[in-house]
Amino acid sequence: MPLTFEPDVSVADWVVGAGGDRAVLATQGPPGLAAHARVRHAGPDREAAPDPDLVAEVARLGAAHTTTPEDAFFALWDGWGELHEGRVYASMDPGRHFGRMFRRDAGPRTLPAFGPEVMDGPRARLADLGYLVFRGPLAAAGDWGARPYTPDWPRDLPPAAFTWPADRAWCIAADVDPDWFTVGGSRAFVDAVVARPDLDAAPVPYGLDPSQEPA
User: Would the pTM of this model clear 0.70, i.e. be above it?
Assistant: First the structure.
């Protein structure tokens, strides 16, 4: 089953209403968690766009580190081009450079990714950023239930900007611009992420300037 829209955006207050520096909240999530790690979307020698599969994989890894794996929240930035009505390229961008797929001079016109109950629904707010909030099990991470572009062309949406279980045991913050995202949670969860050989992950202190590399 895909994720479902959550109109009660107050569930996101512990993230977006935590106070402090906007850039730190957007890239590292809320304060107060025991440990943090930075996970790269790709190697440090090349540019990378947000990877929804990788973020979803780490979210599913977090199912073993929460008491509520069947109840989690996913905040999707509402500025991605893929969410809105427009024209699209005739083929998917293999580099997954989300937000660049829409053009006014090429491709078929498509409807928004969701109906008006979602697209016109309430947003969680972090300064000037707005987020649509979805709810469901961690196993469904990345399954937004979005309309396809065409019957035979699925709509591949970007990852959630914030993912967290209902018990707030951890949070994944995947901001729009960096080629990495941050996992915050228990020491056991963060150690499990860093120990995965298929992840390019390293511990970081909370509050690290987003432009800085971890030591």
Answer: yes
For 88-96, which contacts have Cβ atoms below 8 Å and span 24 or more sequence positions? 88/149, 92/156, 95/49, 96/49, 96/50, 96/51, 96/52, 96/156
Name every residue whose Cβ is closer than 8 Å to that of residue 215 and which is 6 or more positions away in sequence.
none
Per-residue pLDDT of the chain (215 residues; tens, 9 = 90+): 899 999 999 999 999 999 889 999 999 999 999 999 999 987 544 455 678 999 999 999 999 999 999 999 999 999 998 898 765 554 444 444 444 444 444 556 788 999 999 999 999 999 999 999 999 999 999 999 999 988 888 888 999 999 999 999 999 999 988 989 999 999 999 999 999 999 999 999 999 877 777 76
- How do strand 201-203 and strand 180-185 relate by DSSP bridges? unpaired
E-assigned strands of the chain?
4-5, 35-40, 72-77, 86-87, 109-110, 124-126, 129-136, 162-165, 171-173, 180-185, 201-203
Q: Shortest CA distance to 3 belongs to which of 129, 167, 152, 133?
A: 133
d(CA 55, CA 209): 21
